[in-house]
Hints:
Distance between the termini: 78 Å
Order of helices and strands: HEEHEHHHE
Oligomer: single chain
CATH topology of one domain: Recoverin, domain 1
Helix content: 40-55%
CATH architecture of one domain: Orthogonal Bundle
Number of helices: 5
Amino acid sequence: xxxxxxxxxxxxAGAVFLVAAACGxxxxxxxMRALPPIGETEQNIKLMLSYDENSDGVVMRQELEAGLKxxxxxxxxxxxxxxxxxxxxxENDHRFRAFxxxxxxxxxxxxxxxxxxxxxxxxxxxxxxxxxKxxxxxxxKNExxxxxxxxxxxxxxxxxxxxxxx
Length: 166
């Protein structure tokens, strides 16, 4: 009974997440999606760089998939090719300890009682797709860079009435 309640809770939380994502997920400014908070962008960059197996600063889709398969195999404690509720809870605990409230929990989206590889990989794959702006199957150094902050306050131009240009 407790497991069923937990699964319902996780499914509801996932539904809320999906609705937020479907609605744009991020604030809109003049009809354009605003940049995510720097913390989120930095976290996504760190997540993707954790899959850079050869440490060249570029993350290939193949590196991502290989890393996800290794992580899934590690989380599959009984090596049956799927994560049951206990394995899911253990992995979610591990993620929470590593990333705190910023952790992306595993969710049994189809409510079949276990986490398959696609459910396990969905967050990392989604982040990869979002960051791969040119859709070439790799995240290069430009895509794995924090957005540059503005260049400081706008300086008054001569004759604009703000005390400049005399």
